[in-house]
Design goal:
Elements lengths: L4 H13 L4 H8 L3 H13 L3 E4 L3 E4 L5 H11 L2 H4 L5 E3 L4 H11 L3 E5 L5 E6 H8 L15 E2 L12 H11 L3 E7 L11 E8 H12 L3
Parallel strand pairs: 3-4
Antiparallel strand pairs: 1-2, 4-5, 5-6, 7-8
Length: about 220
């Protein structure tokens, strides 16, 4: 619900002058105390201000910075913060993948099939393990190294960043492909996905930093 201009004024007065009595608020607004009674009751109910007997009104719990940040985080969707996906085809060589990884300065690559649908994901760790001591690794296709769909953990654009963070932590991954259902036919009953973005731990860290400094 939207607050009226007078209710917003009351909230600002309480923030600036707490603790403040109802009589003092009424005097500052040039109104009578009974006129403000319903506004004050609503603001207390919403948690925007607190009423303390013999003390007056103070900013409510809903005004605390921590709670505000938590609400903002819960309401932030993946699509609002996602980055462009860094993609390689599944027939690309491991050597090409290594070059892409360093050129794009990313921790993982999203692998797609010939029709552009999600095929797998390949991380720095995957490439390191595969190439270490393997003289023929550079010429082999990334499909031999990647984690294959449907075992890829991904997220939709409309999921919250909190849900994305939970998936990263629970599955111990540094990034997630952001996908939407593909219009192409399912393969063997397995859904196919179009890749529309990626979300990473770096993005998550930036979100937290922005909130911490009040941006």
């Amino acid at each position: 619900m939207e607050l009226t201009a007078r209710q917003l004024q009351i909230v600002e007065l309480v923030k600036a002058n707490a603790p403040i009595t109802g009589e003092q608020i009424a005097e500052m607004l040039g109104l009578s105390r009974p006129t403000l009674r319903s506004d004050l009751a609503l603001l207390v109910m919403l948690g925007l201000i607190d009423a303390k007997p013999k003390v007056g009104y103070t900013p409510g719990s809903a005004m605390s910075p921590g709670l505000h940040a938590s609400r903002k985080l819960l309401n932030t969707k993946v699509k609002e913060v996602q980055a462009l996906p860094v993609i390689v085809k599944e027939n690309a060589s491991v050597g090409d993948a290594v070059v892409s990884l360093f050129m794009e300065n990313v921790g993982s690559l999203i692998v797609v099939d010939d029709q552009g649908c999600l095929s797998g994901i390949i991380s720095r760790k995957d490439l390191l393990k595969f190439t270490f001591g393997n003289t023929n690794a550079a010429t082999m296709p990334v499909s031999m190294v990647m984690t294959r769909e449907p075992n890829v953990i991904h997220v939709s654009p409309d999921e919250s960043v909190v849900d994305a963070a939970k998936k990263m932590i629970n599955h111990q991954v540094d990034s997630l492909p952001v996908v939407v259902p593909s219009k192409l036919e399912q393969a063997g009953g397995i859904p196919r996905w179009d890749v529309v973005g990626r979300i990473t731990k770096t993005i998550m860290t930036k979100i937290l930093l922005d909130m911490a400094v009040g941006h």
